[in-house]
Structures are given as structure tokens and as C-alpha cells.
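Protocol step 6 of 9: fold each sequence in the batch and record its C-alpha cells directly after the sequence line. For illustration, a two-sequence batch is reproduced in full.

Sequence one:
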Amino acid sequence: MAIDPGAGGGGPLERRAPWRRLPWRRIGAYAALTAFALVISAALWATWMAPPWGAMQPPERATYTFLSTTGTPIARRGGMRDEAVDAGKLPLQVRGAFIAIEDRRFRSHFGVDPRGLIRAFWHNLRAGGVVEGGSTITQQLAKTAFLSSDRKIGRKVQEVILAVWLDAWLSKDEILSRYLSSIYFGDGVYGLRAATRHYFGKEPEALTVAEAAMLAGMVKAPSRLSPTNDLPAAQARSMLVLRAMAEEEMISPAALAQIRPATIHPPANELPGGTYFVDWVAPQAEQATPDAHGQVAVRTTLDPALQRAAIKALTVILAREGPRLHATQAALVAMRPDGRVVAMVGGRSYAGSPYNRVTQASRQPGSAFKLAVYLAALEHGSTPETPVENSPLTIDGWSPHNYGNQYGPPLTLRDAFAHSSNVAAVRVAERVGRTTVADTARALGISSRIVAGPSMALGTSGTNLLELTAAYAGIASGHYPVKPRGLDAGVQGGTADLDPNTREAMLDLLWTATNIGTGRAAALPIPTFGKTGTTQNHRDAVFVGFAGGLVTGVWVGNDDNSPMRGVTGGSLPARIWHDFMSQANLNADDLALPPTLLAAIAERQAAMRAAAEARAAEEGGFGDEDDGPPEPVSALQRFFEPFIPKFLRPRREEDPSREEQRWQQREYERRMRDRDRDPRDYQRYPDERDDGYYEDR
């Protein structure tokens, strides 16, 4: 009888499990092909990233060395790098410090340490976060040399592939050499040789065990564990490295007990990584050399002599008078009329605060903004002799005030500008139009936001000192806008020409303000032009001006915006400005001035000198003049003369230039004595955002 295969309990085919019916051979073949394709793809990608026929490391990133106008290096930026190290020539204690703390099985694994990865995974799982990394030295090299620092799984896979690839093509010493020559050690330092010189002033071959341990310990967190940032933390980390070396039998327990943490000994002549000027000019250098790599020398416009003079003038006066007047900060910038910045001091100490108060701080300029107000008036037909009312006024419910409510008859624009009459300045701005004043300020290069309210004429809109000084440079050069620059890339100037008659009239006003008005403390023996500015409750005080081909702005104030004690633009800022400019070896011929203006200045100076001599004669004179020829002086007289009282010494004829200097010094001292006697020197006005008062000098 025939048997139906479909009847009863089923045959062998029906009893076979479903997974046994799968085409395993085909699946295995596909899996093998897929794995092979992945391996080939990984190899091709690794070959493209780190070709074995090349150096197996990326091109060196640009390191900029900034040079002054004399060719002297002033700073290095973009990472300090030095010659590569050869791990095979380093002492065992140096190599061992990095291997002990970063990758104990470096010599035995194939670029990736599975045990280390499992251990790190377990510790992180127990901690509930990332507390330990499992990357080997080879993986770290792959990441720092070829990949980004993103914490993503994809980047980690790429890191593993490159690590295996590097381990296949490079020896262990070659991998260690590249690693030690490229890792970051804080303070902008890359590579072991540069770090050794930076922190200890020696070569890596001469490192002690403690010093090597400190450097190896920094790799985990270079900025936080830098000994210049936190020496105790760096020393504590170095002891952890030393204990790891002892566990790996690289040093004996007895030697460990005798080792003391290292201290740093940086070389005295090392270039800084940043200054106020370099922080500002570095982006300009990077923009000018987008494809640069390796060592790049950048010649800047900084004049080292003027920079030293600026630092001295600012720090000396601020240290001497700042505590008494609660003036804790100051800033100074000096530029040529074409915009080349030759000196920049963004604060009293870059180490204490790298915040640049020249370029980053937006402060109200006070009456220094009146440059734009009066220039707009001169461009629209006014002259220095044009009268303007000096009586009270109210605009839209707001009333500006002169100091002490001192008003009077109409003033000329020259006198109103010189003595900083606020009601006059507001009237001038209203006469020409607020929009016109704002447009004039923008044409001069002030790009900060200007609020076109009635108090705009009094400098209530914030700007930075660099912009404000560049605006004055436009008057000095006769071309605008002047764009400040720090790279020595040829002479550049403004794109528009200032009308010669308008420039002469504006120079007239600026000279009067500096030599007769509120800025007298800044006046120099050569023609000097400038304007003071002081804001509410003496929170900010500025003086901006120029002489002899140098335009300089000075700000004094406090970072917390707290009031100073009576500091005005005509006091500390003007004196800092004067002291700096006096050391700048200025030449009057370097500033092109109209002959008619020079003649007018000479006449006014002669009148001022005659008045000063008359005043001195009324006060008793300067002493009798010796009309006779100078007496011969013997060597014996010269020896004993310092011991003879001055009133017993014979008078001798002095050089005319010395007499001129004495007169200038007497005139300066007179100005300093008389500066508080003229009530017009002070002006008071309310802020648009505050019902308080501003005082200006």
C-alpha cells in the first residue's frame, strides 16, 4: 500500500528547525565580503588620512612670531613649537613617565588596548559618567594629529582605525616620538622640547624624574594642570605619575621616597604668548595669511620705544595718583595719522587682566565727542567766530546745564568748544541736525551705535577708545575715515579728503581747547591739538589729541563703572597724555599745518607769554638777569660748587634753549595752579538715561 507523505506525523523535512533551513553558506559569504569591504574601506580611508609614504602626520599649523618696527620679536602666537624629540634618545625616566600614566601596555598592544577599554568602560559605568579614558598613546596621536576632539562614537571608531594603521606602519619609538612632539602642554606650548624649555629652561634630555613626571601629568588637562596656572595641582598630579612609575618598576620605592615635586624655572627672555597689541593684531595676521603653515614672521606697526614710553607714563601716574582718586584702570593708544598703531596699553597689567580697554570697552566719550558736533557745524558754513547762545535751554522736556549753572552772553564757537559749554554744544547740534552730527561721526569712523537724542551732542553714546582716537586722526591727516591697523603693509589713509578750510577751522578749535581751555595740562612746546571728556560722576575721563605726527587717546576709569574722585579729562588723562607725548621725540614738521594757522598760533603764544611774564613780574619776577659775560669756572670751583648753598653761587649765563625750557616749565606749573580757578573749565550736563549730572573738564 502506498504511503502519503503528507499524511500522519510529517517527514524529516517538516521536523527540521526553521534556522536550519537558512542559507548559511550564502550568509557567510556575504558577511565575509562585507567585512572585507569594511577593512578595505578603512584601509583606504586611513591611507588617505595618513599615507605611509608620507610623514604620517598633518602639516604643521602656523605659528606667528610678531615683530616690531625694528624687527625685534615681541610675541609668539598660535602655539609655541620647537624641534621634534627622538624618543629613542630620551632617558628612560622621561619616556617612562608618559608610558606609566598614559599607556602602561604601550609596548605590547597593537595600537588599541582591549583591556584598557574594558576597564575604562566598567569604571565609567560604575561612576555613572566619564571618569576614565581608555585611549592608548597611539589613539591619542591619531586624535590630536588627524581628528577633531568631538566626543562621538563615529570619531572614536575613526580613532581606533587610525591607531591600528599607525601601529602597523610605525615602530613604537616612532609613535612615541610623534606623540611627545605634538601634544599640548598648556600655556600655548606644543611638544615636549618646547614645554621643557618653557617651564624649566632646559632640554628634554636633561629632565629630572620629578620634572618629567610633572610634564607627563599635565597631558590629562594641560590648561588646568599647568604649573603656571596651579602649581600645587601640577605637583600633586606629578606625585601620582611617580607612584605609577614605581608600580611599573621604572623607579625603586626608595627613590620614590626621596623625590620632591619639581618647581618651574622659565627662561627670562621667553617671548610672551599675548599682549594687548598682539591680541588685537593677531586676527589681522591670520586673515592676511589664510594658507600659512609652519613658522610665520609678521612685521607689525608697533614701535618698541613708544610702547615702553606709553607703559611708563600710564603706570607711573596711575600708581602715584590712582589710589587717592579711586582710579584703578587706564588705557592708551597711539597711532600715526594714517592709522598705523604704534603703541597700545589696554590696562595697567596684561597679566592681571588681558581685557583690552582700548578695543573692547565701550565707554561714553563725554565732551570728546563734540569733535563731530563742531565739525558738522563747520562743514555747514559756521566758522570759529560764529556766535552761539550760552543761556539755559530746554528741549523736549530735557535741560542741559553748565557747571554751577554758570551762563552768560553768546560765545564764539572757538570759546564754546575750548571751555566745553554744554548748552552751546546742544544748540550747535540742534542747529545742524542730530542726523547730520551722527553722519559726521560715522564718516570719521565711529561705527558704534549712536542714539540721536538731544544729549547726543554731549557724548552719551558709547564707543571704544580706538574708534575715538581714529576719528581725531582723520582731522590730523585731513583724510577720513582712518582705519587703525597693526600690520606693516604699506601706508594707507582715508578715502575722503577733508576740506582744507574746514580742517583749519577745526584745528583752530582743538588748539584753543588744549592750550587755553580744558586741556591745558596736555599742552606741549609744539602745536598741540585735542579735547577732554568726562562722564557722569567722573566714571570715565578721556583726553584725545595729536601733535607732531602722533595721535593719542587716553582713558582713565574703573572696570566696575564706579565713580572716581574728581578725575576729569583735563587731569589724569591729560597728564598721562602729556608725559607720553613728551617722550615720543615729536617733530612739529611731521604734522602738516596751514601757514595761516601757524601764524595765528604764534601770535596767540606770544600774547600768552607776554601775559605770563607780566603776571610773573607782578608776583616778584624770575630773578635778576646777569648782563655781564659768564665768569670762567675753575676745576676747583666745579668740585666745591655742589656743597655751596644755591643763594651763594654766582649766576651764569644759560643756553637760550634752557631758558625756553624753564619758561615752558613755569607756564606748565602756572596752568596746574590755575586750573581750578576758572569755572568755565567745568561743565555739567544730565545723561539721557539718568537724572544725575556729568562734569567735564
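Sequence two, same batch, same settings:
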Amino acid sequence: MATNYPVNPRIRAFGKARIDIAQRAKSREDWERLWKRPSHTFPFVWGEAWKQCIEYKVDDFAAEVGFFIDVLGLPVNAFDPNYAMFTSPHGDFFFAVVPTPEAENPTPPDAFRLQFMVADIIETTKELEGRGIEFEQPPQPCQAGSSLYIGYFRTPHGIPVDLWGMVKPTNPAGEHDDFDEEEDDLDEDEDEDDDLETDAGEDEFDEDDDLDEDDDDDDEEDEFRPPKKSQLLPRLNLPQPRIEVADIVEQAEVEEEHDPTYVDLDAA
């Protein structure tokens, strides 16, 4: 759906250039080469209270706050008869719920999703189901063969609450067990190396250095994939930007006959 607010074409050009980078980058070196410096720096200096918060409007305020406080057990950061702000025990996030004012519409249930990355998604799901929460989608791999699982339930207003979490891979072939055994063998080899170093001196250190170099070579041989949302665990650390934003605009400009959405940035 198109936005109801006017958009500066230059801003859209910036966004298209960023998306183009994500589509083109196939390696870390590509990211280093293609990623550009933003035109402005981060503008916010945090105050002494909460740092960020989203807010949404509901028809049944009592049901929504009852769910978050007494079912999910979220701590309250602020509360009055017409406002509730929730957080975690350590203040990791903030969001707020308000009753829908007269003559206004409530927030559509699918307007956004609350998403939490948890340490044990299976046990967390069992705990929440024990509290009477019904999962619309039980935890399942985000894609075939992935160890990243996603499940979700909804608040009384209908806001989806996603749980993300890593699940230890298991399969009939026992591949994961073999991996564990390999780790144990590596640990035993390291212990033996320590004994040899004590008896024989510096030559064994040189051998360990060679092993480390081989490990580095193996890592370099692994094919890099452009980061997707399912791989942001917890976030992508993009390379330090080194090129000015003017390069983004130049990259975003395309010939009009090849792109019907072309915008003349100089005329905008």
C-alpha cells in the first residue's frame, strides 16, 4: 500500500541504493567495497529514562494490559488508567498500550509484530502454553534445515508476538553427535599438545601455529552469504563506512528507459 505522506524522491533513491548493495554483496569484501557512509550521523543523545518506545491503540485496554502484566509477567515502567508502558526486568525494550480515543481507529492487529529472541524457545513455549497462551504457529525452523526456530502467538488485540530461538540440531543420522565427538577429540588433542609442549619446548608451539593457520584457511573457504533477517543473530555488524553519501545517489540513478520508476534527482 502506498504511503499517505509525500516522499522526497531523493530519499527513495538512497533506499534503492542500499537495497541494491544487499542484493549485490556476496562476500565480506563486497560489503566493505560497496557500503557507503550515511550523509548524517546518529542524532540522538539518550536521556536518563527509557531510550525508545513504540505505542499502539486498542479497543479493550483492560484485556491488553492484563495479558502483558499478569499472563506474560512483564514489568511496568509507567501505568495509569489510560496508559501502560512495559519493559523487561533489565530494561531491554519498551512498548506502550493506550485506549483508542473517540473518533479514532485502533491500531490494526497486523500493523507490526513484537519479536523476542529467547535462549530456549522450546522451554519458553511450554511455559507460555502452561499459562494458557495458544500459539498460532508453534516453533518451527525458519527454513528447511535451519536451527533457527520461529513461533508466534497473539495478544488479546491481535498483535503478533514472535519468539525466535536457536534449537540444537538433531537427526536420525546422528550428525550432531558426531560433531560433539569431534569437539571432544579436539579437546583431548589440545591436552596432549600441552603435555608435549612441556616436554619438548618451542617446536610444538610452531606446530600449533600451523594448525591455527589451517583453521583460518578453512574459515576463509566458507562461502559468505549476504545477511538475511534469519541470520541477524543478534545483528549484522556492517563494515565501517568509508565513502561519502554522494556515491549512493550516483549509484541509485538509472536510465529512464530501463526503470519506469526513475526519478531525476537533480530536478527533485
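Proceed to step 7 once all outputs are recorded. Observation for sequence two: Residues 39 and 233 are 27 Å apart (CA to CA).
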